[in-house]
Write a structure and sequence with these properties.
581 residues; 6-stranded mixed β-sheet; 12 strands
């Protein structure tokens, strides 16, 4: 938690001024009981109306001055807390963006969302309250005790007994509640994860009529969260009754002692009232201090969770560059090559890919096919280095991908994921993700190649047509075509289509492949597909089975010798003559 305080550096002035003005307010507040004592002991006792009015005016001045100081302190503390949270949130988001896919998979999106939102809000509230009360409340508690000694030392001994008892209660509750609040936030992570999963899979849930089961699962997690919150609430609730019991017990003893001192003629009535006011001030401030400690306890627990994310390393280190094999014109002969590459996901018991070796030249089109879970997406994810190999290596232009800066490597790659993702805004803004400097002509060219002209120019707004969050106002096929257009805008040297035409009909799919093949330049294309028809014209086809290359060759070669490929084709086409069309 304390490491996060570096984000307060910009707001050091506010962090000093807020408690300073609160101290001024507290100082003025400590003088009020003395003025009350003077009003009673001098003004009322001697029936001096002028003196009473004079003291009342002084009290009004103290009150207004304290109000101005309080508002000023509130302004500076709010400014510091909001600014601190803003910088922290920006830095956390940037750090999350730097994490590798494997780290994100391990931590989970729901946990990241909770720490970006709920946890940072708790830290912001803790900073705000801390700046306002961490000096004011202790100052008034101990200041009231000192002022009580100026009134009557014997009666003030009661304060010396009461204040340590209150401190034991407050800090004892704090020590117990810190681990409990960590459990609360952990349970909140689970509820957020379940909610997110249900919202994303709502169509599947309804299709299989699983609403009652999911509702019960949510209720179980929600009840577990409620139980932990109630437990933490009970611990926090103990604080106020205990502090009230101790303080009111102190008041009883104080009134009894004060009455005896007045009867003996040692104290005046006004002095007893002043002592009672100081005890009441202590009670109020300790209640505030209790709330501060509860809030700060939550903030510390949340801050530790945020710091745990910052301590996650990106997970991918760049290797020192080595000599690469290049042709006489300075270009490598092989665009992409896999050399005994293997991949194992974090926490997995076995490799997802094993001993993958093949090479692809510039301008070649490679098809990748296989059953579900064969490792097709895992294989193409190694090219832009979304994941690091666990053995062997992957090379682009004869150079290990781990030697490239990520920005340089991914600038050469245009990738369309299995699930087409669009962002809220306009079609133009989404396409410019591929190349922010692209002209309208280049955007239109990419749209035509992706067979998305009817999607873009079928509407009046054209490129400025609105895109809702996640592209919800487009069908699956439309989203896929726009995602392909976005990748083509980049004019990549390597284009990866990861089952990105699954929602397209056969005719549109064929036109898309033909248009990509007709693009100028020597773009290397990887096509992952479940359709054998989509890969028939590829220069080579990789057949994956259980994370290994079962065979590799052209469509005709594989039909003649690869049983796995034959089974796929037989399942999709009724006869051998259809394979050869």
């Amino acid at each position: 938690m304390w490491k996060l305080l570096k984000y307060m550096k910009t707001y050091r002035k506010e962090a000093v001024l807020a408690p300073a003005f609160k101290l001024l307010e507290a100082l003025f507040e400590l003088f009020v009981p003395l003025l009350m004592a003077r009003i009673i002991d001098i003004g009322i006792r001697e029936q001096d109306q002028g003196y009473i009015v004079q003291m009342c005016l002084w009290m009004a001045v103290l009150g207004l001055t304290g109000l101005v100081c309080s508002i000023t302190a509130q302004y500076f503390s709010a400014r510091a807390a909001v600014g601190f949270a803003s910088k922290l949130r920006s830095s956390l988001f940037a750090h999350i963006q730097s994490l590798s896919f494997s780290k994100l998979d391990t931590v989970g999106a729901s946990t990241m969302i909770t720490r970006m939102t709920s946890d940072i809000n708790q830290v912001q509230s803790g900073v705000n309250l801390f700046l306002r009360l961490f000096l004011r409340s202790p100052f008034i508690v101990f200041g009231a005790m000192v002022m009580a000694f100026t009134v009557d030392a014997k009666a003030a001994v009661i304060f010396v007994v009461v204040i340590p008892l209150l401190c034991v209660i407050v800090f004892g509750v704090m020590l117990i509640s810190i681990p409990v609040y960590k459990k609360v936030q952990g349970r909140l992570d689970r509820v957020v994860a379940l909610t997110r999963e249900n919202l994303q899979g709502v169509r599947v849930i309804r299709a299989f009529c699983r609403e009652p089961q999911e509702i019960k699962a949510f209720e179980r997690e929600n009840q577990a969260l409620v139980r932990v919150q109630l437990f933490s609430g009970r611990i926090s609730a103990i604080m106020n009754p205990l502090t009230y019991v101790v303080v009111n017990g102190g008041l009883l003893v104080l009134l009894y002692t004060g009455a005896g001192r007045v009867d003996e003629g040692i104290l005046l009535q006004g002095s007893v009232v002043a002592l009672v006011n100081y005890m009441s001030q202590i009670l109020v401030e300790l209640v505030k201090l209790a709330n501060l400690i509860i809030t700060v306890t939550k903030a510390i627990a949340c801050g530790n969770r945020i710091q745990a994310v910052f301590e996650l390393q990106p997970g991918m280190e760049r290797r020192a560059a080595c000599t690469q094999t290049a042709s006489q014109d300075g270009r490598t002969e092989e665009m992409v090559s896999f050399e005994h590459a293997a991949l194992r996901y974090p926490g997995a018991a076995a490799d997802s890919l094993t001993d993958i070796s093949f090479s692809v030249k510039r301008g070649e089109t490679v098809g990748i096919i296989g059953g579900t879970g064969a490792g097709k997406t895992s294989l193409v994810s190694l090219i832009p280095r979304f994941y690091d190999v666990s053995a062997g290596c992957v090379k682009v232009k004869g150079r290990d991908v781990r030697e490239y800066p990520p920005e340089e490597l991914r600038a050469m790659v245009g990738m369309v994921m299995q699930k087409a993702v669009l962002f809220q805004g306009t079609i133009r803004e989404n396409l410019l993700w591929g190349n922010e400097n692209a002209t309208d002509g280049e955007l239109c060219e990419a749209i035509r190649t992706a067979q998305a002209e009817d999607v873009v120019f079928g509407a009046k707004s054209g490129l400025d047509a609105a895109v809702k969050q996640g592209g919800q106002n487009f069908s699956g096929g439309q989203r896929q075509r726009l995602a392909i257009a976005r990748a083509l805008v980049r004019k990549p040297e390597i284009l990866i289509l990861d089952d990105s035409a699954s929602a397209l009909d056969f005719a549109t799919d064929a036109r898309l492949r033909q248009a990509i093949a007709g693009l100028p330049g020597e773009m290397t294309v990887f096509i992952v597909s479940q359709r054998a028809s989509s890969l028939k014209h590829a220069d080579k086809i990789l057949v994956l089975e259980d994370g290994e290359i079962a065979d590799m060759g052209t469509h005709e070669e594989l039909l003649g010798r690869c049983s796995v490929y034959q089974e796929i084709c037989d399942a999709q086409f009724p006869g051998r003559e259809d394979h050869e069309q």
